[in-house]
């Protein structure tokens, strides 16, 4: 069987994936889209750096594969940046999918101009230094979620959800079922059904012989 790819989740909302994953994997809600791109899918390339030190993400931009999402643990500070315009230009050229970080970013005009997907904890004018190489492809903690290299990142305007690579096939199957369930409920509501009608339908679906 072919391994699950990030693109397999392309038609599903982050909230749907979260529900299908057992209400797990969601990053803290303060990590929000910075630019105009409101969708992000890819495999995590993890980065851990010292706050205010950008050398780790500079190296990560060159190390990551096209389609990867840089998941940057910058220590959670919003008083200096771990991403900016020059990094966005290079990452866009190399075909990276986007960035998710618990740190702050700057040069938002460039991020928006290029349409590069960035989710961050804040925006800050203050830059940093480039001294420490940081750490790459280990397990990081971003938005209260442990993220390993190769995990699947699904993000939209509602937030960021991380699917562990080892659970991707199971979560994808459950996501398809959850999506069908949500569409069925919405259709009933659009056709005049009440919440009670939907709840009864949910209960019927949960029966073993349904």
UniProtKB/TrEMBL annotation:
Cofactor(s) listed: a divalent metal cation; Mg(2+)
GO molecular function terms noted in the UniProt entry: metal ion binding
Keyword Metal-binding: yes
Short name of any one Pfam family annotated for the protein: RraA-like
Binding-site residues for substrate, renumbered to this chain: 84-87, 106
InterPro entries the record matches: RraA/RraA-like, RraA/RraA-like_sf
Keywords: Magnesium, Metal-binding
Positions that bind Mg(2+): 107
PANTHER family noted in UniProt: 4-HYDROXY-4-METHYL-2-OXOGLUTARATE ALDOLASE 3-RELATED
Protein name in the entry: Putative 4-hydroxy-4-methyl-2-oxoglutarate aldolase
Organism ancestry: Bacteria, Pseudomonadati, Pseudomonadota, Betaproteobacteria, Burkholderiales
């Amino acid at each position: 069987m072919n391994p699950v790819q990030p693109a397999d989740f392309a038609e599903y909302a982050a909230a749907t994936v979260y529900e299908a994953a057992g209400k797990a994997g969601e990053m803290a809600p303060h990590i929000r889209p910075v630019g105009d791109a409101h969708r992000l899918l890819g495999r995590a390339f993890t980065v851990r750096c010292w706050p205010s030190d950008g050398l780790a993400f500079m190296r990560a931009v060159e190390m990551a594969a096209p389609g990867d999402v840089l998941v940057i643990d910058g220590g959670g500070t919003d008083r200096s940046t771990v991403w900016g315009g020059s990094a966005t230009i290079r990452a866009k050229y190399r075909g990276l999918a986007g960035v998710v970080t618990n740190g702050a970013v700057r040069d938002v005009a460039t991020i928006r101009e290029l349409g590069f997907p960035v989710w961050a904890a804040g925006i800050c004018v203050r830059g940093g230094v480039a001294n420490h190489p940081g750490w790459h492809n280990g397990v990081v903690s971003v938005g209260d979620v442990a993220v390993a290299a190769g995990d699947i990142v699904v993000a939209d305007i509602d937030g960021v959800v991380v699917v562990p690579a080892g659970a991707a096939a199971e979560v994808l199957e459950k996501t398809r079922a959850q999506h069908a369930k949500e569409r069925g409920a919405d259709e009933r509501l659009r056709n005049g059904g009440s919440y009670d009608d939907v709840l009864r339908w949910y209960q019927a679906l949960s029966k073993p012989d349904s």
